[in-house]
Amino acid sequence: MLTTLLLAAGVGYFCGAIPFGYLVARAKGVNIFEVGSKNPGATNVLRTLGKGPGYLTFALDAVKGALAVLWIPLSARYGCSLFTGDSAELITYAMVVGMFFSLLGHSFSCFTRFKGGKGVATAAGAFLVLMPYALLIGLAVWLLTFYSSRYVSLASILAAASLPIAAWFLKEPTPVLVLVAVVAVLVIVRHRANISRLLAGTENKFVKKSAQAKVP
Q1: Is 125 in contact with 71 (CB distance < 8 Å)?
Q2: Counting beta carbons within 10 angstroms of the beta carbon of residue 149, is it exposed (0 to 12), middle (13 to 18) or buried (19 or more)?
Q3: What is the mean pLDDT of the chain?
């Protein structure tokens, strides 16, 4: 049991630690830690480099979150010796551990001196595997909030807060409920600076570059 969980944690961390936002920006000749909000997440890449790099970063961050979870049940299903004899419950716990450590890896990457993003895209990819229906509810909350307010941070915070509620109503397994609650807290805490700016009325809204160019 311990070996299974440690393996899930290690693979999860190193999947999450791959700094795709930094790498995508570097390919464009930009150090993402020196521009915009200095955050390597998809939102900062989108704001500073445009839709292509921003959407690519979001997709890659989501994929690494999904892979940190998905490889575990796939390995067990296809008879990997590492998971021989493991129960379905233990596989679920391993998936939960894999996701949690992928978020730690993303937020505190060993490849970028333990700096990282807020984990929204990575969490979305992992939850797509763990609890797709609850994720759809969270996505709906994100879209409604973003398009009504144009605040990416507020949309992310409210979507994160909605996930534990959705998971509880959908009767997800207890390990998943605990994880989603912890992840929601982690995402909200990572947005604490944004919360301060929202309360002060100084948070930046998402504005297209063409609209920004019209402002004198």
Answers
A1: no
A2: middle
A3: 90
Residue scoring higher pLDDT (129 or 37): 129
Cα separation, 201 vs 119, in Å, equals 24
Question: At residue 183, does pLDDT exceed 90?
Answer: no
Q: What distances in angstroms separate CA 16 from CA 2, 122, 186, one per listed residue?
A: 21, 7, 15
Q: Quick check: 162 and 83 in contact, CB under 8 A?
A: no
Q: How many Å from the N-terminal Cα to the C-terminal Cα in the chain?
A: 62
Strand partners, 115: 109
The full set of domain ranges for the chain reads: 2-214
Q: Is the pTM of this model over 0.85?
A: no
In this prediction, residue 167 carries a pLDDT of 96
Tens-digit pLDDT profile for residues 129-160: 999 999 999 999 999 999 999 898 999 999 99
